[in-house]
Amino acid sequence: MKEQMLSGVNLKDCIPATQIKLFNFDAKPFLKWAGGKGQLIPELVDRLPEKFKKSMHIPVYIEPFIGGGAFFFYLQSCFQIDKSIIIDINRDLIITYQVIKYAVENLIALLSELNNKYNNASQTDRATLYYDIRKRFNYSKKHLDANYSELWIRHSAYMIFLNKTCFNGLYRENKNGEFNVPNGKYDKPSICQAENLWDANKALSNTEILQGDFSLSANYVEENTLIYYDPPYRPLTKTSNFNSYAKEGFTDKDQNRLADFFKEMDRPDVYQILSNSDPRVTNPDDNFFDNLYKEYKISRIQAKRMINSDAQKRGNISEILVTNY
Q: In sequence order, what are the beta bridge partners of 299?
């Protein structure tokens, strides 16, 4: 797949350098993202290489499917990380990360305005505002320049607003690349979480943010690198496909390509962790991932399924973690 990097980004003048502070913070994901790994952090930390846990130091960290970034933000808050690289195919998501890194104060101002307007409106007016913002967001998706402009900040505010007010906090694109999730019904959604956005800004201060295919991370791998892969999960049934985070989707062919990349990166002092669904949940004879990663250590863990239109079907389910050490 051809790389889809954002070019010519020059945002550093948007926020005073004195406001990018390197001290203790407790950043959390600023978006609700399907497949978010907040609940798996204890399992992931338990599987970190011992030398990283003992020293609380990770020289290089790469996350090629950043999504909501739960594990990234945890590591940034608890470990010394010299260099980090985050990547995602979703252009709108990566733009939002860039804006949080370089223009968080302006972003917070816009979100505060939207928060007040939405939460003080009637249900009817809320729906009108939501679909108006969704229309504007989809328009700007098609017209944003790859180079930074002030429109990036407004686009990112729309991204966060829609995530906080849409049905089930789900990000989904149709085949035209348009965000198409309907309005949700919440009492007072927290659209502007200013303190957490500032913490996320600090967590991103030593981070390179790129849009592109996961294979782009090969350019940044060196000794003592930790890579965590959290790709769109392989659907367990035909009706459970929640991997439309980008119009291209993520097919079994992509899962195979990722497994090949995992093997390619299997080098001394390159530590890899991969998470995915467990096909055996619905078919005990489905050894898709067991065959793909048969050369590596596969663990089955219990995770809570968070996104389902039927609340009764949200519950514990087996997932897999793969490590090359």
A: 321
